[in-house]
Specification:
single chain, alpha/beta, UDP-n-acetylglucosamine1-carboxyvinyl-transferase, Chain, 2 domains, 4-stranded mixed beta sheet, binds shikimate-3-phosphate, binds phosphoenolpyruvate
């Protein structure tokens, strides 16, 4: 396999930039993501007086808008898909209530849908927030921090997952003129207003992971050029370049992006350990690629996978099993993915309303025929994924 593949722009950067642009009252965003999550955020922000905000299945939209709408004093309802109503939001609601937001639960306590009933700045500006459920709660609070009279001081407690997304939030906030410091468990945001700024969004490293998988599984000598990725990135999922090295993919930065090259098979590891605490969205790509390349991977840091678009651990276990691979729980929160022999012979892969299930399993088509159920799920982050595969020579 050879050629160039186009990536969507980062949906994490895009969705932060849209909130910051709204709070700053201007600035031009270039290369906003085509992802449904981003297009949805853009549409919802364009109608701030709406009576109901439907975040669909987009975690960042649900969490970031909750903080944005609450602190800007809106009276409105926030809801989402059936799965979104199972994804927790209590940590964020508790924190916003302490800051002065009046928020009620319309269904189950701790989960959407939410009723927002205005904002009266309270006395609290220092809050303890747990970091082990979703970093999106912390990012959401940080972005509204400059609007809180007296600023905001978050003390993060417990195990902190997805930390690079917190530092990405801080970096983008600074780009829009905010004063923010992140030191270990201490996050401080000054009550200094945002200023309009222009920003060009980088390509999406999480989306790039599927091309790493294709280079790993393609014929000897496979290589792919991915324009739009930067060496200096705010995306923690740039870690894919290190995680894929033992699975036989080398990364070279070129002027306009990266070139991925398959390494000789003898350079692949036999058994490696990897930690996904900082990059949970890469876990599915690695699990499938490891199974297909015969590398055993001990995976830790998978806790948050249970509360994403689906229970991604259960989904991986079911679908890997269809190919003769396994993801088994071992001691101390470790999961081992292994496959003595992978059989790809026409299996149908269920996708569980999860874009990453579809895209992580798609590269198995390089080893035989597969059916991916409900392929349109990719629209959440990478709507033209199948089109790019066709361009790369896949028969569909
Ligand atoms: O802030 C963000 O843009 C994201 C944070 C991560 O979620 P968690 O913090 O819930 O792990 C990640 O999985 C998600 O795809 C995007
Ligand atoms: C977990 C994801 O998104 P979100 O939490 O924003 O719905 C994802 O894109 O893998």
């Amino acid at each position: 396999m050879r050629g160039t593949a186009m990536l969507p722009a980062s949906k994490s950067e895009s969705n932060r930039a849209l909130i910051l642009q709204a709070l700053a009252g201007g600035g031009t965003l270039t290369h906003l993501s085509e992802a449904n999550d981003t297009q949805l955020m853009r549409r919802l922000l364009a109608h701030p007086e709406a009576e109901v905000f439907d975040a669909e299945d987009a975690g960042t939209v649900m969490r970031f808008l909750t903080a944005y709408l609450a602190v800007t004093g809106r009276r409105t309802t926030l809801t989402g898909t059936a799965r979104m109503l199972e994804r927790p939001i209590g940590v964020l609601v508790d924190a916003l209530r302490k800051l002065g937001a009046n928020i009620g639960y319309l269904g189950r306590e701790g989960y959407p849908p939410l009723q927002l009933n205005g904002f009266e700045p309270g006395a609290a500006t220092t809050l303890a927030v747990r970091g082990d459920i979703s970093s999106q709660f912390i990012s959401a609070l940080m972005m509204v921090g400059p609007l809180i009279p007296g600023g905001l001081n978050l003390q993060l407690t417990g195990h902190i997952g997805s930390r690079p997304y917190i530092t990405m939030t801080a970096s983008l906030m600074r780009h829009f003129g905010a004063q923010v410091e992140v030191r270990d468990r201490d996050v401080r945001v000054a009550p200094k207003p945002y200023k309009p700024a222009d920003y060009t969004i980088e390509a999406d490293w999480s989306a790039a992971s599927y091309w790493y998988a294709m280079v790993a599984l393609g014929p000897a000598g496979s290589q792919i050029h991915l324009p739009g990725l930067r060496r200096q990135s705010w995306q923690g999922d740039q870690a894919i370049m290190y995680l894929m090295d033992p699975l036989g993919v080398h990364t070279e930065f070129v002027a306009d992006g990266v070139i991925l090259r398959q390494a000789p098979a003898k350079e692949r590891a036999g058994h490696v350990a990897m930690n996904f605490t900082d990059c949970p969205d890469l876990a599915q790509t690695i699990a499938v690629t490891a199974a297909a390349t015969g590398v055993t991977v001990d995976m830790v840091g998978l806790e948050s996978l249970r509360i994403k678009e689906t229970d991604r651990i259960a989904a991986l276990q079911n679908e890997l099993g269809k190919f003769g691979a396994s993801l088994t729980a071992e001691e101390r929160d470790m999961f081992r993915v292994s496959a003595p022999q992978l059989h790809v012979n026409g299996q149908s892969v269920a996708t569980y309303h999860d874009h990453r299930m579809a895209m992580a399993f798609a590269p198995l088509a390089l080893r035989g025929k597969i059916d991916v159920e409900t392929p349109a799920v990719v629209r959440k982050s990478y709507p033209f994924f199948w089109e790019e595969l066709r361009q790369a020579g896949f028969k569909m």
